[in-house]
Amino acid sequence: MLETINLTKVYRDGTIALDNLTFSANSRVVTLLGRNGAGKTTLTRILSTQLLPTSGIARVQGYDVVKDAKKVRKIIASIPQEAKSIGIASPMEHLVMYLTARGLSFKEATEISRSALKEVGLWEVKDKPSDELSGGMKRKIFVAMALASNAELVLLDEPTTGLDPYSRLEVWSVLKSIKSKILLTTHYMEEAEELSDEVILLHKGKLIAKGSIKELLAKFDNKVRVEGIGDYKIGRLRISYIDRNEASDYVGKYVIKPITLEDLFIIYGGETLEE
Ligand SMILES: Nc1ncnc2c1ncn2[C@@H]1O[C@H](COP(=O)(O)OP(=O)(O)OP(=O)(O)O)[C@@H](O)[C@H]1O
Fold it and tell me: Which part of the chain is the ABC transporter domain (predicted)?
C-alpha cells in the first residue's frame, strides 16, 4: 500500500518537484509515468527513505517514510536509476554481498543468488567481473537483486533502460513472477502496458490521472488518433483525437490508430503547439 497526502518536495534551488501530491495505490504493480522532470524519481526517492519531503505525508505499507524510516527500509528493496555495479565483482558476488547485508547467512544468500541469476539469464556469466559484461547484463544484476530480496515492496526506477528486446522480455517475465509488490518507473509505454495493474500519471509534480490502464483507456473509448493533423505535436508529428464515427472523413488522407497508453500521456501531459 502506497499513500501520499499533500506530499510536496521543493529542492534548495526552488524547483517544485512534487506539488501537493495526494494518492493511494494498492495494486501489485504500480507504475509511475510522466515526462522528464515530472517528479517520478523524486517520489521514488522519498518513498524509499533516501530523500526527505518538504511537507506532507508519505506511507509505505502503513509506515510513515519519515517517522518510521527504519521499518520502511526493512520491508523495501530499492533499485535506483543510477545504480552502478562494482567493476571487479561478479554478478554472484554482487548478489551474495547484497543478501548478506540484508541479514541472510552466506549459505542462504548463495542459494537464493543462484536461482535469481538463473532466472534473469545471468547464469552463464555469474562469475565474470561485471566490468566485462554488457550494459544490459549489468542492469540485470540489479533486477536479480530485486528478485532475490524477497522484500514486501520493490522500487524499480527504469529497470530495463539499455536492455535489448529479448532481455527486456526476460526481465518482464521475472517481474511478473515475483511475489513482492512493485513500484515501477518507466519511459516505455509498452512496458507499462505489459506490467502495470495501476498507473499513476504525473505532470510537473502533480497527479493528473490514476487507475488501471483499462479504466484510463475506457474514458477515450469513442476516440481514435489521427496522425498528420492537429494541435498536439510530438517532435514533427502532429496528432489529433477525433470521435470514432468521424474517422471515415480522414481515411486515405491520414494515419488513423486506436488510442493507447501513449496517447493518454499526450492528452493528459498536454504538449500542444500553443505551449
Ligand atoms: N537535486 C536536485 N536539485 C534541484 N532540482 C532537482 C534535483 N533533482 C531533481 N530536480 C528537479 O526536480 C524536478 C523533478 O525531477 P525528477 O528527477 O523527480 O523527475 P523524473 O520524472 O524522474 O524525470 P526523468 O524522467 O527525467 O528521470 C525536475 O525539474 C528536476 O530538474
Answer: 2-229
Q: Would you give the DSSP letter of residue 104?
A: -
Residue-wise pLDDT for 139-155, tens only, equals 889 989 988 988 999 99
pLDDT in tens, 196-223: 999 998 988 999 889 998 898 888 889 9
Give the DSSP letter string of 163-204. --HHHHHHHHHHHHH-SSEEEEE-S-HHHHHHH-SEEEEEET
Task: Tell me how far the alpha carbon of residue 42 lies from the centroid of ligand 1, in angstroms.
Answer: 6
State the ipTM, two decimals.
0.98
Distance 205 CA to ligand 1 centre (A): 9
User: Does the Cβ of 166 fall within 6 Å of ligand 1?
Assistant: no
Partners of 29 in the β-ladder: 182
Instruction: State the first-to-last Cα distance of the chain, in angstroms, to the nearest integer.
Output: 36
- Distance, C-alpha 171 to centroid of its chain: 13
| Nearest 10 degrees: Cα torsion 120, 126, 130, 134 | -50
